[in-house]
Amino acid sequence: MSKSKKDQPxxxxxxSKTGKPGTxxxxxxxxxxxxxxxxxxxAKHKRTIRIITAAAIVIALLIVVIVVVVxxxxxxxxxxxxxxxxxxxxxxxxxxxxxxTGLVYxxxxxxxxxxxxxxxxxxQCPGCAQSATLVEPKLEELADNGEIQLTYHLLxxxxxxxPGNHSFRAAIGATCADVQGVFPEYSxxxxxxxxxxxxxxxxxxxxxxxxxxxxxxxxxxxxAFQTCYADRATTDFIMNMQNxxxxxxxxxxxxxxxxKLWTPSNSDLxxxxxxxxxxxxxxx
Length: 284
Prior knowledge:
single chain; alpha+beta; five-stranded mixed beta sheet
């Protein structure tokens, strides 16, 4: 008697070769997938480390520029150049501090005991231009939060080394911009337009027409700014800032916290939190 088909041995089919979950073949496939995922995670981690390292190197190089490219400042404005006197009524900018030695950044009212941070800068100083992009945005964020009081002390000592009174004229523009309530914006544009060659400076057209227009002044506000600039109406205030330079400040850019010299380090530039901690440590 012949055996029925159902009693005969079955041959392996294609589906039986692939294995079901839990079989040795499926376990092997799962392990390969886990290994592939682990390798991809390790590669991603290595790429992240390379990016962070590259960014740290860039920051380090930039802060070296700030530290190295400093310019000695003369405390007495009479030794730094021949300046025209103001032809119009003299104006004290609205953001001037109590002793007319700087412009207070218009953040919120600082909290009680907040550190007093002063930035000493000259518009022709290359390191100051670097500071304007690396340091000052974080300082202004802290001031916006009421965590520090931030003051800008504008100097023009570099005019003693170069012709043209460019630092002085830029300071005139910046203080006249403060009269119109746009000092921070104007100041950043002046630094952004700083010529590659130190001492080349800016034209009156740039300082009195192009830059105020870029910060949004128009109509009567623009006319008032240009009158202030043409009349050198903030000359007395600017001269007072130069003549009141503390003896401890010999170069720009320089920073003080509660009157004590403070130099931001590479790690301080990593974040606003790091800068806050550094400033609080300097203030204590």
